[in-house]
């Protein structure tokens, strides 16, 4: 689990603005400036993954209003990302996507974030093998402006995310940071509730 820990550092190729490949993309550029919603998905050119890309793109302005950048990542190459980004939505592509798509071809980013869908092992004859699927599960990580992971969730390959819930969680984090008060279950921005301070909640939890 990464919550309360610094988000693992990485430098990797990515496609930005839907059309430009950069070889040294890193989340470090956002430190002290932006929240980051980093999400992992299994594969380009698949059935469910483009629906998530479209959903995040449709809500991108809402994330940006909250000072948050959205970054996608899979184990595909940057060239594969670029081709996928050139294909229209009606043909299964994600043309029009403007947030970065990171290429984790070495699978080290997925592994460091705990979302790689399997693990390395050896067979009975001593040969290296991989158990499971060497692609990313649907991991979602909300990282604050200090580079600390404040929320994470990991779904099976076939279980897509709810982008509105990602926004709600971001709103709750922003409220907590601004007011120092914990938000109750199912809270939404603008909803009134009985206020509970962060300190009181931590004290309650520490008593088991």
From TrEMBL:
<dbReference type="GO" id="GO:0005829">
    <property type="term" value="C:cytosol"/>
</dbReference>
<feature type="domain" description="Thioredoxin">
    <location>
        <begin position="1"/>
        <end position="175"/>
    </location>
</feature>
<dbReference type="GO" id="GO:0006979">
    <property type="term" value="P:response to oxidative stress"/>
</dbReference>
<comment type="similarity">
    <text>Belongs to the peroxiredoxin family. AhpC/Prx1 subfamily.</text>
</comment>
<dbReference type="InterPro" id="IPR050217">
    <property type="entry name" value="Peroxiredoxin"/>
</dbReference>
<dbReference type="GO" id="GO:0033554">
    <property type="term" value="P:cellular response to stress"/>
</dbReference>
<protein>
    <recommendedName>
        <fullName>Thioredoxin peroxidase</fullName>
    </recommendedName>
</protein>
<dbReference type="InterPro" id="IPR000866">
    <property type="entry name" value="AhpC/TSA"/>
</dbReference>
<comment type="function">
    <text>Thiol-specific peroxidase that catalyzes the reduction of hydrogen peroxide and organic hydroperoxides to water and alcohols, respectively. Plays a role in cell protection against oxidative stress by detoxifying peroxides.</text>
</comment>
<dbReference type="GO" id="GO:0045454">
    <property type="term" value="P:cell redox homeostasis"/>
</dbReference>
<feature type="active site" description="Cysteine sulfenic acid (-SOH) intermediate; for peroxidase activity">
    <location>
        <position position="49"/>
    </location>
</feature>
<dbReference type="InterPro" id="IPR036249">
    <property type="entry name" value="Thioredoxin-like_sf"/>
</dbReference>
<dbReference type="Pfam" id="PF10417">
    <property type="entry name" value="1-cysPrx_C"/>
</dbReference>
<dbReference type="InterPro" id="IPR019479">
    <property type="entry name" value="Peroxiredoxin_C"/>
</dbReference>
<dbReference type="Pfam" id="PF00578">
    <property type="entry name" value="AhpC-TSA"/>
</dbReference>
<dbReference type="InterPro" id="IPR024706">
    <property type="entry name" value="Peroxiredoxin_AhpC-typ"/>
</dbReference>
<dbReference type="GO" id="GO:0042744">
    <property type="term" value="P:hydrogen peroxide catabolic process"/>
</dbReference>
<dbReference type="InterPro" id="IPR013766">
    <property type="entry name" value="Thioredoxin_domain"/>
</dbReference>
<keyword id="KW-0560">Oxidoreductase</keyword>
<dbReference type="GO" id="GO:0008379">
    <property type="term" value="F:thioredoxin peroxidase activity"/>
</dbReference>
């Amino acid at each position: 689990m990464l919550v309360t820990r610094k988000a693992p550092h990485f430098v990797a190729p990515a496609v930005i603005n839907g059309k430009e490949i950069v070889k040294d993309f890193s989340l470090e550029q956002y430190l002290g400036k932006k929240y980051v919603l980093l999400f992992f998905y299994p594969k380009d050119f698949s059935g469910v993954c483009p629906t998530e890309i479209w959903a995040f793109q449709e809500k991108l302005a809402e994330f940006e209003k909250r000072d948050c950048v959205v970054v996608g990542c899979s184990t595909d190459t940057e060239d594969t990302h670029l081709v996928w980004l050139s294909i229209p939505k009606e043909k299964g592509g994600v043309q029009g996507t403007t947030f970065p798509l990171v290429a984790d071809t070495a699978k080290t980013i997925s592994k460091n974030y705990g979302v790689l869908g399997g693990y390395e092992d050896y067979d009975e004859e001593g040969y290296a093998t991989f158990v499971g699927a060497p692609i990313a599960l649907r991991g979602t990580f909300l990282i604050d402006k200090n580079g600390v992971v404040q929320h994470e969730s990991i779904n099976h390959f076939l279980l897509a995310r709810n982008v509105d819930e990602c926004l709600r969680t971001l709103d709750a984090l922003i409220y907590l940071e601004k007011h120092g008060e914990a938000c109750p279950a199912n809270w939404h921005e603008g909803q009134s509730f009985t206020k509970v301070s962060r300190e009181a909640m931590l004290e309650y939890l520490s008593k088991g």
